[in-house]
Amino acid sequence: MKFKVSWSNILLIFIILLSAFMRLYKISDYMTFLGDEGRDALVAMGILQGHFTLLGPRASAGNFFTGPIYYYMMAPFLWLFHLNPVGPAVMVALFGVATVFLIYLVGKDFFDKKTGLIAAALYSVSPLVLTYSHSSWNPNTVPFFSLLTLYLLYKAVTTVRSWKYYILVGILLGICIQLHYISLFLAATVAVSLLLMHWFLNNKILVVPLIKYYLEILVGFLIGFSPFIAFEVRHGFPNTRTIIQFIASDTTSHSYATYSAFYQPIADVFFRLFGRLVFNYPSPDLYKLYSLPYLQIFGFAILILAIASIIVLFRHKNKFVVILLATWLVLGVVLFGLYKKPIYDYYMVFMFPLPFFLIGNLIGRVLDLKKGKMPYGYALGGILFVAIFGYNVYFQPFQYAPNKQKAQTEEIAKFIIQQVNNQPFNFALLSAGNGNSDYAYVYYLTILGHPPVTINPTSADPQRKTVTEQLMVVCEDVGCKPLGNPLWEIAGFGRAAVWKNWNVSVVKIYKLVHYQTYTIAR
Hints:
Elements: H1 7-24, H2 27-30, H3 35-48, H4 69-80, H5 86-110, H6 113-125, H7 127-131, H8 142-158, H9 163-179, H10 184-202, H11 207-224, H12 226-235, H13 238-248, H14 263-275, H15 292-314, H16 319-334, H17 354-367, H18 377-394, H19 405-419, E1 426-430, H20 439-447, E2 470-475, H21 488-491, E3 496-504, E4 507-514, H22 515-521
Parallel strand pairs: 1-2
Antiparallel strand pairs: 2-4, 3-4
Helix pairs in contact: 1-5, 1-6, 3-4, 3-20, 4-5, 5-6, 5-8, 6-17, 6-18, 8-9, 8-10, 9-11, 10-16, 15-17, 17-18, 19-20
């Protein structure tokens, strides 16, 4: 296949390069590297050392785990970057670039080349998308796999019609659910879309072929989800039981309650799907920075454009595309009505590409408008595209100073190593509201050759051999007091005294010793 030199291909190359720049620019400084990222890096490093796992990260919404696929995706990039945690972040960024290219290909196939370019360009600079495109986190690769899943389903129904495609759809679906359980909504989209497209194709439902397609998808899913299934079978289905209990439990009361009616999360997600992703509408914590009339007018304009894009979609000649995208939108939004806890932006990752197709198609059809020989659509569509594109570029995340979390963590770890005098030590982290864990520090201490000793409970260590002569405590919380803190890593150390303390980077570090040692030395 030859690559022809044309304006569309030149624009595509520009969009791909722009998306790569927006995701890779100073990624080491802007990436998130806290407890969760450190935990994942430790597991991925263990895989490189031969310690394989069938279990993935803990789900944020409950006390259960996802599948391990993300750890195995991380491991090669961690190896390529010599255990530098920026490697997995680069992997996520590259998946983001690949998603931009896939949006172009799908947009061109679903609509036309113009729509594909517009959708890809808008996706490449979306501030919210960029926020989730330069840090290592398992949900961040879902947009690529979810879009590929639905595209292959479309091809399986409309053109290829091969069992191999249905198997592949199932495998990708298993990967998506391993990455994040919100992809169960994607599974519902696949099931309903297949039914509706099959019905439209044959003007009736052919039960036997349809069952065959579902079984082929199921076989693929069992393959794609097999590591998690293997763990569940081996350990008596602990996560399955916990997930069922989580779903069946009351989620409309207690401190997590956010929505009191079924329609509230639906309306909220529908607006945010367009407002937050395509138009960079401010999040609630930033409302105070804008006037009420601005928010109201901006929000109303977003709703008008969102509704207009849906109307234009239903006028599209390819009804298979209409069925697929409409089902993706309706089910993806409506199913959130069953969820009564807070809905974060990243919960919509399985739908990230969707609004860009709809708005891209809307702008593309506006560009086609003309009266006689006057193509006034070029002016209207051009203004709309430039306004959205320029607004998003203006609010790109790089306008803010980088967090430099990775560099700070490495600096703190190196300082701790200097203070322990090459002797065994225990380690503890005190963070504000216990919102962070110590894995990021433990990861750097480990790859720098000085892993801390973990204090085991007395039942497992009656002779207290895991309690060393020194405990290094990192305080991220202003004014924290390590002595007497109930945190196990501190309480398990026993009665202690502060030997020294230092202000390092953005934290305060305490060196604790046993009280008896302190009194003798003094």
